């Protein structure tokens, strides 16, 4: 069996856990560090990382995180 693990930035762990649970059946397995949650469903694993909107994903980039759909259309 193939195991898949993906990291996803979310605006808050609670919102991310709720969204992925309701939409895809993921359940929280652990919170190993503050701002980090591991969730699993059917052999897939997501590592949710709480990252606030407006923060920079990489110091070398000028882009910032945006979670609302409207900001992506601009």
Structure description:
- The protein is of the alpha+beta class and 74 residues long.
- 23% of the residues lie in helices and 36% in strands.
- Strands 1-4-3-2 form a 4-stranded mixed beta sheet, with helices on one face.
- A hairpin with a 2-residue loop joins strand 3 (36-41) and strand 4 (44-50).
- The longest helix is centred in the N-terminal third of the chain and has 12 residues, at 13-24.
- The mean pLDDT is 84.
Kindly list the characteristics that best describe this protein.
74 residues, four-stranded mixed sheet, single chain
Summarize the structure.
The protein has two helices and four strands, in the order E-H-E-E-E-H. Strand 3 and strand 4 form a beta hairpin.
Instruction: Return residue spans where pLDDT drops below 50 for at least 5 consecutive residues.
Output: none
Main β-sheet description:
4 strands, mixed
Radius of gyration: 14 Å
The CATH topology is given as: 2,3-Dihydroxybiphenyl 1,2-Dioxygenase, domain 1
Percent helix, as a range, is 10-25%
End-to-end CA span? 41 Å
Average pLDDT works out at: 84
SS strand fraction: 35-45%
The CATH architecture designation is Roll
Under CATH at level 1, the class stands as Alpha Beta
Shape: globular
């Amino acid at each position: 069996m193939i195991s898949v693990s993906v990291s996803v930035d979310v605006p808050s762990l609670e919102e991310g856990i709720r969204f992925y649970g309701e939409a895809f059946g993921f359940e929280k397995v652990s919170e190993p560090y503050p701002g980090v949650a591991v969730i699993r469903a059917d052999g897939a694993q997501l590592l949710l990382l709480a990252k606030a909107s407006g923060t920079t994903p990489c110091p070398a980039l000028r882009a910032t995180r945006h979670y609302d759909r409207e900001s992506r259309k601009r």
